[in-house]
Amino acid sequence: MNRPLAASLVVALAFATQVATATAQDATVDPSSTPTADTREADTDVSLADAPAGTGADSPATADAEAAAAPPGEVEEEEPGSPVTARYVVGEGVTLRSADGLYALSLKGRIQLRGTISDAAGDEEAASTEFQARRVRLAFAGHFIVPELTFYLQLGFANRDTEADLRLPLRDAWVSYAPLRDFALRVGQGKVPFNRQRVISSSSLQFADRSIVQDELTLDRDVGIYAYSKNLLGLGDRLGYQLGMFGGDGRNRLSTRSGLLWVARVEFSPFGKFESYSESDHDRLSTPRLQIAFGAALNKNSVRERSTTGATYTLGGFDYRHLEADLIFKWAGFSLQAEWIWRDAPVRSLSAMQLDGTTLTEYARAAWGYFVQGGYYFPFGLELAARYGDLRPRSGSDPALARARELGGAVGWYFERHSLKLQADYFYLFGDSFEGGRHQVRVQGQMQF
Length: 449
Fold this sequence. Notes:
- By secondary structure, the chain is mainly beta.
- It has helices spanning 3-27, 37-42, 60-69, 196-199, 212-217; strands at 85-89, 93-97, 104-120, 123-144, 146-156, 170-177, 184-190, 222-229, 239-246, 261-268, 289-302, 318-331, 334-344, 349-353, 359-363, 367-377, 382-393, 404-414, 420-430, 438-448.
- The strands form 2 sheets. Strands 3-4-5-6-7-8-9-10-11-12-13-16-17-18-19-20 form a 16-stranded antiparallel β-barrel. Strands 14-15 form a two-stranded antiparallel ribbon.
- The longest helix is centred in the first third of the chain and has 25 residues, at 3-27.
């Protein structure tokens, strides 16, 4: 295990053990005496909800912060100086909460271990086998001073948790303030609220990973500020929005150019509230639930190939325009999810003469695509799923960007829902022609603790 991760876990667990021991000692009284309000409240423990990586207005990370902000159940009043309570729950981590409910902190870890076998049809030399710790995360979440003021911090320690040209472990670091039903404000680094599957935590997927379409066309984490509400106008969480402004260069980047990323998203749930930012219908909902959403973004003078990710341009920036539409449906164990994403730039190439007399040309990556996936979750914890995706470059785009399609299926065993699961999927990856594609098999286990 990575040394910083191991050290963090040891310190956190030691602290939690000391707090739990102190709480137990304070809660012990003489059997012959009458329990006081202090001892009764010291026995009360409240845990924070799950805290994965998503940062949308209805995402798992937001749900975690809101759960941390929620006051504990009805308890007796306690005099000042009472100890904090501590609790550990599988999948929710360690939770510390002050007796007055004004402060709360959760510590949670996640490990994804993956094995991948892939080969090109008819080409044994192209075969590869890979074993990796795909994701190793440590997250902190909670609230302080008032329940409406929440925070979220997440670090990543696996090789692919960081960018190849910038090995910084910081993934999320934001603070939210939600004083009103129709208006909350979030500032810091986190996921840009653009398309659904990117905002859904990688811990809550039906497959080992996201679609190749969203991998190319999504907007990734960035630093900025946005307003949001998931219960606009008080319609029972049927209407929500996000409206934000970001740096436009991606996570952990310092911008040296002018231009910002502007993002807007609106969501509509006609049948009422449900867990719309988690794949699979683990609740086997007795009534159908649907959410439809639309997103738009403009990234002015972007110097990254994929708008907020990818290699950095040297000749200048492109004005990337983004559109997307998505839906998610759940009912009685069945789930359906679909997304359409589009990215373009008015100017699709930049050229300049080099000192050696050659011409250097850099291209925008203009493309569009879609994917559809569905699954059925059985009552005994088994799920079967299938996905088809199609990515299509636009004319005049980067010649290195070719059409790509995916067709595959997955099986998942859920022992503690997404907190403890084993998944296996198979994909046939191909381009314009169905022939000559590549086979890929992945097996992945995940534990959240």
